[in-house]
Amino acid sequence: MIKLFQKFNRSLFQFSKEVQLKQSETQGKGFYQQQIFTGCLAEYAYYIESNKEAIIIDPLRDVQPYLNIAKERGAKIKYVLLTHFHADFIAGHLSLQRETDAQIIMGPKASAPFVNKVLNDNEYLKVGKIKIQALHTPGHTQESTCFLLYDEDGKQHSVYTGDTLFLGEVGRPDLAVKSDVTQYDLASMLYASLRQKILGLPEDVIVFPGHGAGSACGKNISSGYSCTIGNQKKNNYALQEMDQETFVQLVASDLPKPPQYFFYNAGLNKTNQFQDLNLILKKANTKLTSAQVISRQGIQIIDSRNSISNGFIPGSINVPLQIPFAHWVGTLLPHDREIVIVCEPGNEEQTIMRLSRIGYDNIVGYIHFEDWKSSGNSISKPIELEVQDFLKRSKLAQIVDVRTKEEWGKGILKHAQLITLSELPQNLEKLDKLRDISIYCGTGQRAKIAHTLLIANGFTRVQYCKVGYDDIIK
């Protein structure tokens, strides 16, 4: 009898200090599986084991959690499977191969120097008592492949869909565009893939996606960590009966702008040129003096503290760890500048880890804000306002709403300029440095990021509301 249940176990995943949860655990006929969730990226990786042979599907760069599971269970990691070349994180296939001598396996159309074996469409891979079948499902990317698990009785049990199929959504088709392949071409491929490879699976087959709600790899991914094919056929708009033209318009139109780091990551994941994570941690986990920070020209200072009420280093950008840190850093800041981290004591490794997951490896060290301040250096003080003060001080100011287009549909403040946070760096010329600027968002967090971003770009008359739009209009 198959058991599928949610079970949390943090003890295995303290390597990065971020909560990486054993989201679900499956004991099937002839196999064992863990689904591992990393909240900062809304990413699911999978550990599957049969007869002491294990595979990892879509691992992150920090591979210690997967090694811990295998060690605890006395298993050998034999294969690493990648559903596609990822854009939103640096994958951990090379690190796992170095640690375990595992073979790296991808599906058709995957070409990279590290791939040990390319599975043909419908080809099987034997793992202990079970089989994994490659289902080539181009659309999100041309090499996208789902992996279908057959238990020891030969029953189709679950499908690992990567970024092809999410809960309530499908993968966006605009991240692998080439000169001769448009997002509409890829959307057409996705239409065929879903209908030829996924919809025909038994309705009780479990869908295990590559991402959950909050990921930018899909327009509007539903919450949850798994589902059945039957449920998705009922509830996923993209799986409803429609012609190809209608599907393409639904999937390929009105896509939000992808984070700029996606294209850098996708290219890097096709090479074997990125550094070993342990070397990055060793180099980056270096405490700097304020003099050392000041002496470095052209650095990017990233402040990961959750509160900057006591001040922040001039020129630094505050992106709190408590929000989707990697997403916002990768959206707003370039990857090719040297980075100095400002963090709370004890959060050094976590901040470094989250940056390195998305390929931001140029970290030269960290400094604590109190050390900077106690050395007599200048600081910037944020102007954080409660609702009444915000409304009063905004009467003659430029009001900037940095929420998303979907949020704007719920209402906006009178005279507000609509510049979503993800597009703020490209729209600074729309703001007047000689006027007060009042910023608000949905919770106060994005407004705080925008506040430090504007200060770093020479705006001096900036203030933001500590709470969100719904509280402002009460």
TrEMBL record:
The keyword DNA-binding does not apply. It comes from the Eukaryota. Residues 295-381, 393-474 form the Rhodanese domain. It holds the Pfam family Lactamase_B. The keyword Metal-binding applies. One of its GO terms (biological process) is hydrogen sulfide metabolic process. One of its GO terms (molecular function) is sulfur dioxygenase activity. Keywords: Metal-binding. InterPro entries: Metallo-B-lactamas, Mito_Persulfide_Diox, POD-like_MBL-fold, Rhodanese-like_dom. This is Rhodanese domain-containing protein. It comes from Paramecium sonneborni.
